[in-house]
Amino acid sequence: MQFLSDNAASVHPKVWEAMRSADDPQPPYDNDALSLALDDAFSALFGRPCSALWVASGTAANCLALAAMVPPHGGVICHREAHIETDEGGAPGFYTHGAKLILVDGEGAKLEPAVIDAAISGIRKDVHQVQPQALSVTQASEYGRCYQPDEIAALAHCAASHGLALHVDGARFANVVAFLGCTPWEACGGASTLSFGCVKNGGMSAEALVLFDSGLADVVRLRRKRAGHLQSKGRFMAAQVLAMLKGDLWLENAHAANAAAAELASAAAGRLMHPVEANEIFLNLAAAESEALRSQGFSFYDWGEGGARMVTSWNSNPAHVAALARAISAL
Amino acid sequence: MQFLSDNAASVHPKVWEAMRSADDPQPPYDNDALSLALDDAFSALFGRPCSALWVASGTAANCLALAAMVPPHGGVICHREAHIETDEGGAPGFYTHGAKLILVDGEGAKLEPAVIDAAISGIRKDVHQVQPQALSVTQASEYGRCYQPDEIAALAHCAASHGLALHVDGARFANVVAFLGCTPWEACGGASTLSFGCVKNGGMSAEALVLFDSGLADVVRLRRKRAGHLQSKGRFMAAQVLAMLKGDLWLENAHAANAAAAELASAAAGRLMHPVEANEIFLNLAAAESEALRSQGFSFYDWGEGGARMVTSWNSNPAHVAALARAISAL
Amino acid sequence: MQFLSDNAASVHPKVWEAMRSADDPQPPYDNDALSLALDDAFSALFGRPCSALWVASGTAANCLALAAMVPPHGGVICHREAHIETDEGGAPGFYTHGAKLILVDGEGAKLEPAVIDAAISGIRKDVHQVQPQALSVTQASEYGRCYQPDEIAALAHCAASHGLALHVDGARFANVVAFLGCTPWEACGGASTLSFGCVKNGGMSAEALVLFDSGLADVVRLRRKRAGHLQSKGRFMAAQVLAMLKGDLWLENAHAANAAAAELASAAAGRLMHPVEANEIFLNLAAAESEALRSQGFSFYDWGEGGARMVTSWNSNPAHVAALARAISAL
Amino acid sequence: MQFLSDNAASVHPKVWEAMRSADDPQPPYDNDALSLALDDAFSALFGRPCSALWVASGTAANCLALAAMVPPHGGVICHREAHIETDEGGAPGFYTHGAKLILVDGEGAKLEPAVIDAAISGIRKDVHQVQPQALSVTQASEYGRCYQPDEIAALAHCAASHGLALHVDGARFANVVAFLGCTPWEACGGASTLSFGCVKNGGMSAEALVLFDSGLADVVRLRRKRAGHLQSKGRFMAAQVLAMLKGDLWLENAHAANAAAAELASAAAGRLMHPVEANEIFLNLAAAESEALRSQGFSFYDWGEGGARMVTSWNSNPAHVAALARAISAL
Fold this sequence. Notes:
4 copies of one chain form a homotetramer.
Chain A: H1 13-21, H2 33-36, H3 38-46, E1 51-55, H4 58-69, E2 74-79, H5 83-86, H6 91-95, E3 100-104, H7 113-121, E4 131-138, H8 149-161, E5 165-170, H9 173-180, E6 193-196, E7 207-211, H10 217-226, H11 235-245, H12 249-267, E8 280-284, H13 287-295, E9 301-302, E10 307-311, H14 318-329
Parallel strand pairs in A: 2-3, 2-4, 4-5, 5-6
Antiparallel strand pairs in A: 1-7, 6-7, 8-10, 9-10
Helix pairs in contact in A: 1-11, 4-10, 9-12, 12-14
């Protein structure tokens, strides 16, 4: 009974189906009809013109976005626990050619305008200190916390007031929109770029990088190739992404994962480290308790001393979820 | 009737089948059983210990290899028409952090030791000139020419005599081994790294980077992550590669593509720009002749003025091949 | 009466004299007799074989050193207030091609083994997190604090135990050796590389990068050229450095600066933010007090709210120093 | 009797004098009065607003310029024998983060619009090939050839027609203006950036990077710091450059060097490999002839088989020049 990560879940049958339907030869790279349909599909989804490119990982999506927004001598403000800082193997440094991540704090791995203002006011405006040029926000945060539309709007306003472009890392963006019940644009309003996650949500190998700043598309297409991320049979990438959007499969999957997480959160109410809003549950769990759960067949990651992280997926087995909820309640 | 590129062909049914079989959740990234099986599978194939990693493109395979072999201040000797120079969007510069491609000439885009010796003797051994540290050879060459085992051995010897590591770009390595009838190792003997192509040969999105120099594996694994090429559901990548190896599917597919190319080559005997050894045909074709063929439904790329390139695939339709052969003969 | 920075002081007459003596043409770059004498001069100074190169700034010295010690995908542990982090305009990211500075805390901007151990134990040993490969220590620290020989030895031991190479940023290394009264090697024992500062200590434009790890010299020479730091009339750079070493001018100058700082420190005894060991004084100074001093003709930098930094030089005017000491006492 | 390089010549007395006059403390880096005067001095010289920064080498000047004009994924068209390609140790790759030098041919290392047009027309306008974004021209060329004002204008027009920015490497720009008798701007008209050489022309360690495109200055200032080229006692750099401009010392020195070269060229009239326009003489010289000259005390570089390069300087000894001229005539 697996609650390790949504990273490892199966591929949704509709995604498989779309990939199989794309098997007949088409022009290579991103010249196939499916890849060419992405801009329109995302423009419709977000209610505004944008460009969208498939890439093979969230790391690539995030870092291609940042590299297009920030020159090598610039900086990116992000949370100290942001994925780009902690878990991408230094990819931002590679893609941006050495731009600096400027780290700030915030509860639940969430950023607030006041913290950003303070960080910027501490930077001398001279050539000796790296000047920030972008803000990167993770929606949902690394602790599964969602920014409300007004919170995102405030961050976008803060960024703009400092001349920073806004990037949103949406590895679990679907779970956010499902939780908030808002429009996709409301969940990232003001962003120049959005990493729109699909792989954790029923996809296989395709994430979408959405560019709301029209000036970035040409550069990102060049840099995607330069990074070895322009796959020759790109139609299989586009097929995955389009299948996620079709009939709002992305939201359906996210609702399922969120519901499973909510069920676990209820059972763990007294021991939650963070409110559960998306599909991740961080809870206090003594070593003996963790062992007790594992001995019953549940797998999950430890989270520091006395903590644990459990993640649900679009296809978390309801019986497993119920069993885990009972087991937690019984601790 | 498509002869544009093997890049666009369908995915082989056995590859599809292997991917579907990998759908059940497994540990993410490359910790799944399939990814962990790659080292042994390629060690068996090449008859010597090696490491093998999946990546999403030949460009990524080539450039991760080069970056592991050459420091940023070094150089890579390659043919003036090598894919890394002409068609990878500057990816070698990105991955190696600015190392220099040192270009040399050679008939049929093939390299010879004497040319390499001459290039190196023209480089002053001081800090003002970039010092080469690797040699990159494309097997088959960009004009579909194969290096015989003794030619590869001579290049490997030449490289070693200058202290250069040897990289082999094997985007169509299967076609070479099928053509030469030698062992895989004989076709790249002496290489430190090999980009082992799968996508053009019936795969979907996975190439294999094979490292014969055991010291490189750890670095390449770190750099693959840093480049955003460590996919979270890596099992689908490994499944493709293993399916290609199983029962020598890779050779079977290559034989089929080569046979189709040979059939076209026979028909075009008097107008070949290069001997046809793998699955690419470069032929002299006047503009009117090209138009005549296209009007009969054949698609292919022009190759400069008065030339054309046709590429066959593992599943080139025999009827289409026969039709094209007849049409060329009839010109 | 200037106490802003030793960065702005005059050039020592003996340095001028040495430069003038180097005016006759010699082979360009670093092939002149003076440049060729550097290795021996520093080997004698440190009592062990080493290589030494001139460069035009401490930033270049630090970053050439780090780039030779750390691959692009690696990390450097340093203090959160280290000059390489706060005041080099992102140069470490440029020179190392995006390696990461891993920041730790410590009183007086000094590092301790326990803090380094803790930082490393918090890094997962996988490809998702950047792995440190070097430790950078500033001697004297950014707050003018010196590491005692046993403290440096403990840091070197700590670094070695984690497989890290040790870099010492010695922008004010002379002041340290003058303060400690130890040998130069004792003040940086175990370092692989040392940025040996001259410019703040009476030089004009030449710092020395000292390499105790013999394997690094060739790489650093290549990279110095690649960074545009191999000046064609290098003899004027070498002349400066050699003049500093001759007759221990470097120590004489540092003693003078330290003595001036000590005089100020006595006067400011009750309001020091840090013990004064080298030539920098950080003191609590209310806004009105700062204004009072400035109105008497003393120039210095504010240091946060209610603080000030004063720096003495090899040629701080004794009358000015005495006047400032009196003025501080009189506050 | 030294004719190896102007790189090694002495420093002009007026430059020494200006440096000595700058010895009193001033604000560090480029905040001193001399550094602040550079923009105006060069704006006056070129008759149009521009920014000017000192840097320590022509390599740094060239590469800071290119990096400001070309993104990492772009390309720079230059001559196959351009200094940036052959003699800067890969510095363009370092500074531009891997942009590509696109090499073209031309007699006397000079570029012509038709060659540039042809090179560009050979580049497919897709993401697979590196797209040029700048043109770099060496004035005088690597063989001492000058572009006439109309030739420079034609290159500038050609560059603009392709959307390329124009960089002029003017390591020996003074010799060009002295030779042509035109205005400085006519010798580089249309350039966005100019590396204005001083070191070969009587300076010690300061070159000037002149930016005619006002949008580049802020970026170049940030990148100069990031490259470790912002020296703390920058006033000594500015002093050198200003001394060169004062009273047209730069032209006076160049006239002297050119005159010496012309004297040698007359003597070598029948054996010149290139017309002598600046201060370099390339001549056919059999091995025995070279030996004969060397045995008479003349030092110079071989230039390939049967060739030699001789370079005159601002202070070439007239007696030595006359002696060499006689010796060549007597061969």
